[in-house]
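Weekly puzzle thread! Below is a chain. First person to post its structure in token form gets bragging rights.
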Amino acid sequence: MTARDALQTQLERGIAALGLNLPEGAVARLLDYQALLERWNAAYNLTAIRDPAEMITRHLLDSLAILPYVRGETLADLGTGPGLPGIPLAIAAPGRQILLVDSNGKKVRFLREAIRALKLEGVRAVQSRVEDVEGQFDCITARAFASLEDMLGWGGHLLAPEGIWLAMKGKQPEDELPGVPAGFAVRGMHVLAVPGLDAERHLVVLGRV
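Winning reply:
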């Protein structure tokens, strides 16, 4: 059994545990993405996680755990870093227009290479501060990016009138809820069970009032 076979087994078990049905070829592309991230990470330090098996759990499965909540034709992933959760979501549910936003040049160079190498249609990467991005999106994702107050303060203008904002958090962010800016409201709070991950994960769903 090769190292990739072991990672594939881990990934497939995790996807099954999440109850997801992914399109044909998605598992191979997710593994290609992980391998590319691992290779670039050695030189560019894109993520603190070095262990391939841990990347499967903490990056791929963690990202895929929010897939059931993603909707709409357009998605912006703010503070995406090396493409999380945006690239796994693009692979798992192709067909929507996705904008990956990060202010770090190294990370955006990696994103552009990943989009090219993985042939991700409809996915773009932009190097920008969130507050300078233009447009409106049906769905916005943000993973461990900032407090709810700062997230919506910087990027709230990007949310379409009927859109949903998916904020990925560790512990339940009760202390952040009073900071949600006027014009926005929490629509739901979900516990995410990420296969193989001991840590707490929560998803806060927000929308416009």
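Puzzle host: Confirmed. Bonus trivia for everyone else. The chain has one domain: 3-208.
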